[in-house]
UniProtKB/TrEMBL annotation:
It comes from Microvirga lupini. GO terms for molecular function: peptidyl-prolyl cis-trans isomerase activity. SUPFAM superfamilies: FKBP-like. This is Parvulin-like PPIase. The keyword Isomerase applies. InterPro entries: PPIase_dom_sf, PPIase_PpiC, PrsA_foldase. Residues 115-225 form the PpiC domain.
Length: 288
């Protein structure tokens, strides 16, 4: 009976009753809100099967599909937990990937109309790079390997210029051949390399010149024909013009969408960043 009269016991009992009442009336503020549920639908399973089939050229077995679903669930909960812990914040790779996915989404949703015929005609006259054929050249060459090739090439050039030598009897053999007809610069680049391709179009017409260096060695070259650029018929390049028209319109639309997003998120930069803004200088705010 003496125990029931102890003040310490009274304090402990009263404190416990107050704590229980508070817990019943006011739930703990420290309790974390419940996370959104993860639901794996039949469509998700079908998508997993489709991705597997595309990669392996066959549908997955029941065991393989079980692993796919388990991996998908594991990936989903880990990704959500990582996001909850803000592990994505400040991660350059994740930021770039999200921006890339957003750009793909914008590309898919942009609706570009068919180009007006009048605008295509205007582009036909204003964009020779789209409608003209590249210049072409025909030539004969004599090839020399690099070992002592420079001296031999110069001596042979003098003999060919003076008419005392026949080209087919000079130089070293090369599997590519000696004569080439109607070659543009890209074709010559593929065959001999960029140095040779650029040099041949600058050589004089109708006489031997060189030596010109290529990825194989040295060459004496005689240009036998030159075809200047020519405008192809409108009907032949209309598809190419339409593709460029759509690209320009899509780019302009994307620029407008980006401008709206910059305004939406109130992008601001330090004064030290201002010189590097380029075309965005008029769209962002500079704050000291």
């Amino acid at each position: 009976m003496r125990l029931l009269k102890e003040p310490l016991l009274h304090f402990l009992v009263l404190g416990g009753l107050l704590f229980a009442a508070h817990a019943a009336v006011a739930p703990s503020e420290d309790k974390a809100p419940s996370a959104s549920a993860v639901r794996i639908t039949e469509a998700d399973a079908d998508w997993l099967k489709e991705m597997w089939t595309r990669q392996w050229r066959r549908p997955p077995t029941a065991e393989e599909l079980t692993r796919l679903v388990a991996d998908h669930i594991r990936e989903e909960v880990l990704a959500r937990e990582a996001k909850a812990l803000e592990l994505d914040v400040g991660d350059t790779v994740i930021r770039r990937r999200l921006a890339q996915k957003m750009a793909f989404l914008l590309d898919d949703t942009l609706q570009v109309a068919e180009p007006p015929e009048a605008e295509l005609r205007t582009m036909y006259g204003a964009r020779p790079d789209l409608v003209r054929t590249p210049p072409r050249v025909s030539f004969t060459q004599v090839f020399f390997r690099r070992e002592q090739g420079a001296d031999r090439a110069r001596a042979t050039l003098a003999a060919l210029t003076g008419g005392s030598a026949m080209p087919e009897e000079q130089g070293d053999g090369i599997l590519l051949g000696d004569s080439f007809a109607d070659q543009d610069e890209q074709a010559l680049d593929n065959l001999f390399g960029p140095t040779f391709a650029g040099a041949v179009f600058a050589l004089p017409f109708g006489r031997w010149a060189g030596p010109v260096e290529s990825s194989y060695g040295l060459h004496l070259v005689k240009v036998t024909a030159v075809s200047p650029p020519e405008a192809r018929p409108f009907a032949e390049v209309r598809g190419k013009l339409a593709e460029e028209w759509r690209r320009q319109r899509q780019e302009a639309t994307q620029d407008q969408l980006l401008k709206g997003l910059i305004q939406k998120y109130r992008v601001a930069v330090d004064p030290a960043v201002r010189p590097f803004l380029g075309p965005l200088a008029g769209q962002v705010e500079v704050r000291p």
